[in-house]
Amino acid sequence: MAKKLVLKDIARLAGVSEMTASRALRDAPDVSKATKAKVEQIAAANGYVPNRIAGSLSSQSVNLVAVVVPSLNSFVFPEVLSGVSATLAASPLKPVVGITGYDLEEEEEVIREMLSWRPSGLIVAGLEHTDTTRRMMEQASCPVVEVMDTDGDPVSHCVGISHHLAGYEMGQAILARNYTRIGFIGTKLPRDFRAAKRMQGFVQALKEADVALVEQVTYSGDSSIHTGRELTAQILGDHPDIECLYYSSDVMSVGGLMHCLATGLSVPQDIALAGFNNLEILQGLPLALATTDARRREIGERAAQIVLKAREARSPLAPILEVLSPTTNLGQTL
């Protein structure tokens, strides 16, 4: 693991005093623009985040755990946060949330700001980051836990599922029902790396059986029932012989079911449907939709447990990797 840089290291690399480096990073008015730019560039290049805790608290951390997620618009990430919050409830630590909008540059800014307050832990959704974000996470003075995904190279600790495997297993389940005319509908692609990995796993399962997707329709905006309904109408309008549709999220598959009910299509006799996430929104529908349980709350709980374990140890833990198993539920729509 790379040596964690402190302010004096940044000052030395910039060729200025530690006091000047500190004032430059605090945007003090008596430091020249050229010096500020040089110090800021060196700090960013090395993943150094200035400490915003003043004076006597400068060597300590605050009782906050930074949780960085792409969105709170769906039911997915609030359930992760519920797991984090419930696990931290008996401790002095409390979660604080940052939203990135599936934008890696925004994630970089959010994580820089959060780390500047020296939290007791950092929990981040996903494994894909800018180079600068990754350096900041490597240099962080608190435990860093990446969650939701295990298909990649974690910075340190990681808790999640293999999304590639989740897509692959759903592909196998669909093929086992003898469907060969299959379509895919996804949102936030390619920015949602986890959805993209599921699609790759799904396509791999089909390819191994010499089956190709009839069509894949992607949408860059948020998942919604309305969007799922519209895209289902679109893909079935273009390919009425499709036998099965796999969606990147349950919210979209609910929209697909609404389209089928409105147009008189029988599920699964006329068209089979499958989604992802096993959201609570599926409860109470006329049919139990096929889906995959991504273990979201448990992921939040286990990530928080790692933060608490590191706090108790009072020293860096060896990297922990917890790979949970996604669970395929065929419901009544396959």
List strands and helices in order, with pairings.
Blueprint: H1 7-14, H2 18-25, H3 33-45, E1 64-69, H4 76-88, E2 94-99, H5 104-115, E3 121-125, H6 131-139, E4 144-149, E5 157-161, H7 163-176, E6 182-187, H8 193-208, E7 215-219, H9 225-238, E8 244-247, H10 250-263, E9 272-274, E10 291-293, H11 296-313, E11 321-323, E12 327-329
Parallel strand pairs: 1-2, 1-3, 3-4, 4-5, 5-11, 6-7, 6-8, 8-9
Antiparallel strand pairs: 10-12
Helix pairs in contact: 1-2, 1-3, 2-3, 4-11, 5-6, 7-8, 9-10
Q: In percent, how much strand structure appears in the residues?
A: 15-25%
- In the CATH scheme, the class of the largest domain would be Alpha Beta
Helix content: 40-55%
How many domains? The number is 3
Kindly report the CATH topology of the largest domain: Rossmann fold
Euclidean distance between termini CA atoms: 47 Å
Helix and strand content put the structural class at: alpha/beta
General shape: elongated
Strand order of the largest sheet: 2-1-3-4-5-11
Q: CATH superfamily name of the largest domain?
A: Response regulator
Please, how many helices? 11
CATH architecture of the largest domain: 3-Layer(aba) Sandwich
- Computed Rg: 23 Å
